[in-house]
Design brief:
The chain is of the alpha+beta class and 194 residues long. Helices cover 41% and strands 16% of the residues. Helix 2 links the parallel strand 1 and strand 2 (56-62).
Length: 194
């Protein structure tokens, strides 16, 4: 057997095995015990996105100053977060105090490869729907649409068009109507230097 051929085949096998492998990525989210409800919702959205992608999430609560004397606030916050995302993941390691921080790890229910396959399936489904909607759409004609049947130009010239209140501008062969000039009686009564 040729050694070069052996090296090539082993490299191809290694590449194929790496293609099916997925690296476990641990994403981290940092919180404070006194977090605003809107900020909590944003952080929870990030955790949900990470879990849907099949990544583990390390949730860290940072205590500062007097907050260190109330670790139960952080514990309650972590329990609340775990309850909010329980349909996407499970608590892999329970909350534990580590110096000034409290740490909890949440793992996804689906593996990363399953999550990728699911996302790819949804993408394919959307692409198929878009293609079907484009196929059902009528194709516009490059030619302009034929004008509707109009009376002949001779018939239009013989019939005068009625004018509306707004269209009172004089035509080219009509004399403009002038309003009778009213004398300005107020201008003589204005006192001023003579």
């Amino acid at each position: 057997m040729d050694y070069g051929k052996f090296k090539y085949e082993s490299a191809v096998k290694a590449r194929e095995s790496r293609k099916n492998q997925t690296q476990t990525v641990v994403k981290e989210i940092k919180l404070r015990p006194k977090i605003d409800p809107h900020d909590y919702g944003t952080k929870k959205g990030h955790v949900e996105r990470f879990l849907k992608a099949g990544d583990k999430v390390k949730v860290t609560i940072m205590f500062r100053g007097r907050e260190q004397s109330r670790p139960e606030l952080g514990f309650r916050l972590l329990q609340r977060l775990a309850g909010d995302v329980e349909e996407l993941g499970f608590v892999e390691s329970a909350p534990k105090q580590d110096g000034r921080n409290m740490i909890m790890v949440i793992g996804p229910h689906r593996k990363k490869s399953e999550a990728k396959a699911h996302a790819a399936g949804q993408q394919n489904q959307q692409n198929q729907q878009n293609q079907q909607s484009q196929q059902n759409r009528p194709v516009p004609s490059p030619r302009p649409a034929a004008p509707a049947a109009q009376p002949s130009s001779e018939a239009q010239q013989s019939q005068p068009t009625p004018r509306t209140q707004q269209d009172q501008t004089p035509g080219p062969d009509e004399a403009p109507e002038t309003a009778p000039a009213e004398p300005a009686a107020d201008s003589a009564a204005v006192p001023g230097p003579a």
